[in-house]
Pep3/Vps18 RING C-terminal domain-containing protein
Amino acid sequence: MDDATKSVNNIRLDVRSLKARFTELDQKDQCCICEFPLLTRQFYVFPCDHSYHMDCLINKTTKHLPFRQIRKLADLQEQLSRDIKLQNKLQHVQWAKAANNNSKQIESTDSERDEFRRTKARIERLKTELDDIVANECVYCGQIMIDSIDAPLISLDENDVVLSWMI
């Protein structure tokens, strides 16, 4: 029992240290999948130093997920998109109110502030769920790569390319 308790405590310390971990990026850093500059869009950086644009990682990961998780991922993306639009709308309403009052900052109503906070909290929760599915591990260093080791290097739909290489 003592060994299990020690293991749990060690895991907790490891998780805390990972949350405080950071990396420095250079403007020349590229996405490992598309090789475009990393800083042009939202991105992930893994402890192994592989980095991916969010959309590139989602596309790459989706090919290896079971159907149930693909469906959950699509639902999360849809909800996230809807909530971000709602958050932007709430902010726009506040800016419009301020502009209509000769740029004087006016106090939001309690219900507007509460709605904004709830939406922000929902967005954070959805992002966390999305991260748990997509960015659970690096696609080049994790289980996905191990599982795909026996996949052919050239897919069947690239047969015409193979034929063009023949002498």
In short: The mean pLDDT is 83. The first helix runs from residue 2 to 19.
